[in-house]
């Protein structure tokens, strides 16, 4: 169960509320001694508009009106065929409406519930009736600043209302009165508030924001809001130690929040928001400064001299690609900035130089790591850049060297565009034949350590001593297992003796740089959070920061024991480095302190603006720089490129003018040549593109056009292929799979169209099922005959029936037709017998009661429809052949008619008969030449082939002319056949009379009669198609009856399943009642025993102390009845006015506390000072023990009485549930009885199809009965047989009386 909140009722622990984003449920907890019973009730939530949906009972829906034709209307679950538990809650999609979505809830002192919804409304739920009320909001004239639509994240109750926090960061105060509420702003925060909780005294409110910050709001005359915990904005993106790494470290989040923390207690010292998405962070070893790289390609330099308020002192916009790497060398001389486009910028790390950009070098685009070696003994800085070559499965290493005097000679080391010259920085390229995820350069600069990406190994690679050109392939020199899984990273300690590895497994290992053996290991993060993202180690090597990738945690590690040779070397190097950097750090820190703060929105003018005096004029054929006084901020690399272009333009201005003049002369010459070309003949004219002088451009345009043509041709081919595939699918489904193709038959001059029946071949499964049904029907027929012969007794009714059959034999012989059925034609319901179809195996419509009979009847009816269609198609084919014959004959005679018209020079057009596409649909599948509008491309060999075919066809035509006379004679005399069958003559269509070519007004009376006769025959042919529809109507009626039977069966199955479920529930409740009664009897017996013991203690008191005088016994008895007063803790009046829930009912723990307090008060009564005068102390001690036993027994009696009341209430609830379940069971039985009656009625009340005679009969006295609800339809023969029996019996009775 997906739940968002769970809360107990503060005034009644027996109630519990659970809520999710779609439901609210109230649970009731009932207790019987040590047994607890949970019962839930689901709250019906209103719709999104605040109204309530009137939901009908799904299990026992209200009685629906019955359709007099289609029978009873079943519930939707029965129509859907559901019979299990899903039928109890089934609702169709059209009946589902969006409801309100609860967010949070809280209880009130009246045991009601307030529920906040995502859509804004506030609901109140009555704790007893669970009725939901939508509270109305009192709108004020001035709207709220933020959050007219309040979606509460959390709710807490206070007197006369609630406090609610929204997703907008505002805490609202809801003042509720009756069924309306008023909203006011209470508190406002920068982030959404997730949790609100009051203290027990309701004087303080604890507030937690989404980011994790915690505040305490204290109520009073002067309310205060105190911040308890300030959380960071998201996961840490980068971390680093502030030099020297012994007091503070810095963190960076993606949103731009930079925080400074104390190492000692990990408390935050200060923070600053950069208000921009950031990527990396690094701290300078030579000053108290830090640098942050952004997604936009700029770097921000921060002054951290004051850790409580770090500030931005400089900003540089390097390029438009995101900054991915920021690395200082070990002495803090240079800052190396790696971007995603593959540039590594070199920046002077000293603040006194204003962080001067010294240049950049181009490396691989996918930079993985930047490693530096900057030792105190040498005057150079070596840099190694690792990048990935994904297409080749290799890794590239680029190593270059920078001198320490680079800031003084930067202009000589770079070109005009700021690019460092490779020959001056001694740049070398290396490649490794496998992929590396990390690589570092050792401090001796003679080998590289690499972390393999695909295999769990760490390798070392020796660098060549001699210089080389091109790419040098490195081979592994040393190879050890990493003991990690997943890609990892390398880090070198400050003194270069430790190699630290991290990986996806979450384990950090410290290794010896020479042997690569692990001497320290720690699992700081879980592999489920994808391990460690990055690591930083302090200068002295004593502190390590480890940041997780996805778990959102930062781990601070410190050595337990730090000593030995490794520790001494690290501390020695640390002290030596600090001494050498101390003077530089002091100078740079003083400069940083004096540097003014830089606005986060504006950068340095020297780095971000373009010179405004740039005025460049470049020829239109070359690049142009458009001057713009208000040009937007551009990166440094583009500025250097523009400056280089400006310099080149000034340097070659004279040469450009000369080239421009020559181009103008050449252009004029070409224009003259083009004008002359227009005047020459077409055969000598050149194409316009031939005057292009740029041969490379012409070749490029030609290649582009060929590529475009190839692309278009490929797209067209794919489009044509898809169309062809779709056409084949359609053709296969609608044409090839048809045993009888669909076609039409049109009259020559009348708008009548007759279509045949497209038919598919019946499948083997259908034929097998039909064969089974036919065999079954034949067996049933034979069994019926044998049963009549053997079993039936010759009753008078049978004799009468035989007489009727003998009397009608002659009439039946005379009217014997093709029909071969024992059903009357009007009861058969169709005219299928008119097509010669055998219907003898069909069952009577009055006998179709069972499901199997209806299914068999449907199969037989489908077979009859198939035969009717086949018979009609045969007649259609005969008519179609007749039309083909007539068309051929007319065309033949039109040849002679055309000759006569030409001889007489009449100029009339001869009407030529033909077939439409609907009559010959196969034409659609063939594309004729005249349908193609585009000009057809014919190859020479195709032309030669066409000429040869035409010649042969002409020869064949001349040869056929000799046999043409015989064909014409055959067509005129015999209709195209030598033998005409009788069946064909009967099926032939009468051709159109010749007079139909004349206008109607010129027809004679005889011609009009002939036309009517012709029209009647064509109309009859068209109407015969509709006869088979009557068979389909019978099938539809049978299918509907089967569906109704299925619905009734589904409903019956569901009711049986529901009855079984309720019976099991009743059995469980009965067992619970039995057990509860047994427990109650045992508990009552214990209670009676305690009560009797209590009375015995009271009655036996005087006997217990009968040895002392009577007046002392009376005094002791009064003390025996005396009980101590328990002083309740005084509640402050102010707290009483604030706390909304007041005194809450006591719990078990509170009762124990009260009992302990009572026994403590009894100690005061047992004091010797309270002993009556003259009483023996031993008797006083015995009296105190007896009284204490009496008090303890009274407390047990009270507890037992309370438990007894709970158990009696529990038993009463179970009895009520048992009665309720019994009522539901009885209701299910009633529903089942009604359903079975309805099912029997539907099986007997059949829908039959009666064939009526067409026509209209007018009645003078219309007094027929139209209501047949209480009538019964039976066979007329049954009535006649009964009447015959009655007549015979009456005749016999008459003869008996006469005798």
From TrEMBL:
It comes from the Eukaryota. Gene3D superfamilies: YVTN repeat-like/Quinoprotein amine dehydrogenase. The gene is LOC103605421. It holds the Pfam family CC_Cfap43. PANTHER family: CILIA- AND FLAGELLA-ASSOCIATED PROTEIN 43 (PTHR14885:SF1), CILIA- AND FLAGELLA-ASSOCIATED PROTEIN 43-RELATED (PTHR14885). Residues 688-715, 760-821, 1004-1093 form a coiled coil. Transmembrane segments: none annotated. Keywords: Cell projection, Coiled coil, Cytoplasm, Cytoskeleton, Repeat, WD repeat. The keyword Repeat applies. This is Cilia- and flagella-associated protein 43. It is found in: Cytoplasm, Cytoskeleton, Cilium axoneme. Belongs to the CFAP43 family.
